[in-house]
Structure formats: C-alpha cells, structure tokens
Design brief:
single chain, 391 residues, alpha/beta, Aspartate Aminotransferase, domain 1, Aspartate Aminotransferase, domain 2, 7-stranded mixed sheet, 4-stranded mixed sheet, binds pyridoxal-5'-phosphate
C-alpha cells in the first residue's frame, strides 16, 4: 500500500487524535525500522520507551508464537501458569510486591488510585505539576498538565498538584485527608525532568512521617530504562505502590500495578478487574522480557550507554548553540533546544532517524536498550547534520 493511500485512510477512518509523522513503518529489527518505501531509520524512541529489547527480539517472538498456539486468553475466572509465574518473578525482582495486571499504563494508574482510596479511606492524592499519568479520567485527574485536562472537566475530585522536585511544596500540601503522594521518578512527558538527587528519599521520609502512601508511576521509567530494573531501586527508595506498563511487554500490551502485600491485601474480591488483564499471552511475553533484561544485563547497559550518549550529545551542544541542556538517567535522555523540537524530528526523518519531541522544545531519546555504541555514534553524526541544516 502506498503512503498516500495509508494517510488518506487514516484521515478518513481513524479518530484524529494523533499528530503522526509522515512515515508508515512496516517492519523493525533490533534498533532499526523500515518504512513502506523501503527506507531505514535508527529508532531513538522505541515506541515511546516500550521496545527495550528492540524490535522483533527472537525470544519474544518465540514466546509469542508458542504461547499463542497453546492458550491466548481465559479471563480471570481461572488460574493460568504464565500469570502466576510473572507475578512470582515480579515479586522476587521487586523484593516482595504483589501484582494486579491490566493492559496499559493508564489502567495501572487507575488501579493504584482505587487501591489508595480503599487502603487509606482518604480521598486526596497529591501529584505533581507537569506530570503525566494517562488519559482515562482518574489518571487524567492525576495528570498535572492543563492542556490534556481542559476539555474534559469535571474530572475526578481529590487531586492536588504541586511543584515537582520541591519537598517544601509537598510538605505544605500533604494534610489529614491525603492518602498518597503520586510521582514519576523522572517526568518523561514533561520533557525528561530529573528531580534533585535527594528528592525521592525526602518524599519517602515525608510520607512515612505523615502516614501517607508513596505511589511511583514507573510506566515510562521501568524495566531497565534508567539503569536499574525499576527506577526506585536506583534512588534507594521503596514505594508502597508502583506502576508498570510500556516496556514490561516488550511491545505486547500489558500493565501492572504492584503494591506491598499489606497494602494490596486491602483489595478484596470484586474490588477491581479486567477481562484481558493478566492474559496468558501478555504474561508469557512479559516473563520473557524480564528474563532477557536480567540475563543480558540490559539495565546496566542502559546506564553505561546512557552515560555515553549524554557525553556525545553534550559534545554536540558545544558545536550547536541551539542545544541548551542535556539531562536524563540511563537511556531516558532529554535534550532541551532553543527551537521547536518538532522541526528537528521532521528533518531527522530525512536522515534516517526516528526522533521524538516532547513538551515543545525537548528532544527525547529512549532508544532500545540493545542499541549499540556504533549506532549511537551514527545517531549523533546524523543529528549533527540535522542541527547544521537548521541554521
Ligand atoms: C508515566 C506515565 N504514566 C502513564 C502513562 C500512560 O500509559 P498508557 O499510554 O499505556 O496508558 C504514560 C504514557 O506515556 C506515562 O509516561
């Protein structure tokens, strides 16, 4: 199918909620994808921090095929082996958390919001300005960006938003009716905003002091991306509840809300459910993703390659004054520009790069964790050309 036909069908038949780049991707392998016209691109965004193992990882494919041919779906009316095995793996890797499975990031956050209310009996959750937690009404109410919220009011009551990174702001906001503080360990959609070093530790202390739950939304940071399997492990801070989605399924949809047993046990039969949540296919694939991440040391690789890419991007910043700042952790990196990052993304396509712009002026890098140093060098070489062409 030609690109013009694809674009025409999309315009005519699909809700126009996305601003898509003018490229139709038909296949991918590792960190490289091919479009419908046969052009290749290095993937610097990995389906928005999803494909941590890269495209078409052979073990993921094998698990998908084997599990699909055996059992795809049963509902939660029954036990299935992949679901209990995945929960067991996550329990072991997290140091004892129990799981509730769903199908996306926003659903994982919804489950967390309900659990906070059920466990604490309190209605208020303090979240951060500029945060992003999803688009369903509960998660959207937690999201601290007016642009996503405006058209959909009234939202779910009980959410307040404070400056991200400021412990003082949180200290002032947490009160008697507060059930939880909900934060991203790094704000991805706000343009890869990394909090001050001590922030999450101080938040944990504040939550303990005031008997409030700490919920960390790891939908974007989880599964090795920031240099540890879960970002909280890198900060030495244990949340009461955390969420996963995106990279957990390596490209297959799955979400999870994890909580310490004493918190999760407040959920009783019938409190929450999902027809597809925890289906055998998604759970089997997620199990394979965790195996590969662990066996191939992909979290450590993200840390090493992230440091490397940050240095290379900073070098680019010495040559291109349009680069204002390079920041991030592991392979979640933001490059703040003095111009609209969307222009750079479009120009990047012409040079075989799948780049991503977020929050206006930020280029976000979240490549597959299996990307090589040579590919990162090539990305920087091409980006050098792209930035040169902006002048
Ligand atoms: C931190 C965070 N939470 C929640 C979500 C929502 O996830 P999903 O798009 O799978 O619903 C996102 C998506 O970008 C996210 O970055």
């Amino acid at each position: 199918m030609e690109f013009s036909r694809i674009a025409e069908l999309e315009r005519r038949c699909i809700a126009q909620t996305y601003s898509r780049l003018p490229v139709a991707i038909v296949e991918g392998r590792g960190a490289v994808v091919k479009d419908v016209e046969g052009r290749e691109y290095i993937d610097c965004i990995a389906g928005i921090a999803v494909l941590n193992l890269g495209h078409s990882h052979p073990e993921v494919l094998r698990t998908l095929q084997e599990q699909a041919s055996r059992l795809m779906h049963t509902s939660n009316l029954y036990y299935t082996i992949p679901q209990v095995e995945l929960a067991g793996r996550l329990c072991e890797l997290s140091g004892g958390y129990m799981s509730f499975f769903c199908n996306s990031g926003t659903e994982a956050v919804e489950a967390a919001i309900k659990l906070v209310r059920k466990h604490t009996g309190r209605k208020e959750i303090i979240a951060a300005l500029n945060s992003f937690h999803g688009r369903t009404l509960g998660s959207l109410s937690a999201t601290g960006q007016e642009v996503y919220r405006r058209a959909f009011e009234p939202l779910v009551p009980g959410f307040r938003h404070v400056e991200y990174g400021s412990i003082e702001a949180l200290r002032r906001a947490v009160g008697k009716s507060t059930g939880a503080v909900l934060l991203e360990p790094i704000q991805g959609e706000a343009g890869v905003v990394v909090p001050p070093d001590d922030y999450l530790r101080e938040v944990r202390e504040l939550c303990d002091e005031r008997d409030v739950l700490l919920v960390l939304d790891e939908v974007q940071t989880g599964i090795g991306r920031t240099g540890t399997l879960f970002a909280w492990q890198g900060y030495g801070v244990e949340p009461d509840i955390f969420t996963l989605a995106k990279a957990l399924g390596g490209g297959f949809p799955i979400g999870a809300m994890l909580a310490k047993p004493e918190v999760m046990r407040s959920f009783e039969r019938g409190d929450h459910a999902s027809t597809f949540g925890g289906n055998p296919l998604a759970c089997a694939v997620a199990g394979t993703v965790l195996d590969v991440v662990e066996r191939e040391g992909l979290a450590e690789r993200a840390k090493r390659l992230g440091g490397y890419l940050m240095r290379r991007l900073e070098e680019l910043g010495e040559r291109h004054s349009v680069i204002k700042e390079v920041r991030g952790k592991g392979l979640l990196i933001g490059v703040e520009l003095e111009v609209d990052a969307g222009k750079v993304v479009l120009q990047g396509l012409r040079h075989g790069l799948l780049l991503n712009s977020v929050h206006g002026r930020v280029l976000r890098f979240a490549p597959p964790l299996i990307i090589t140093e040579e590919q990162l060098d090539e990305v920087c070489r091409r980006l050098d050309t792209v930035l040169g062409e902006l002048r």
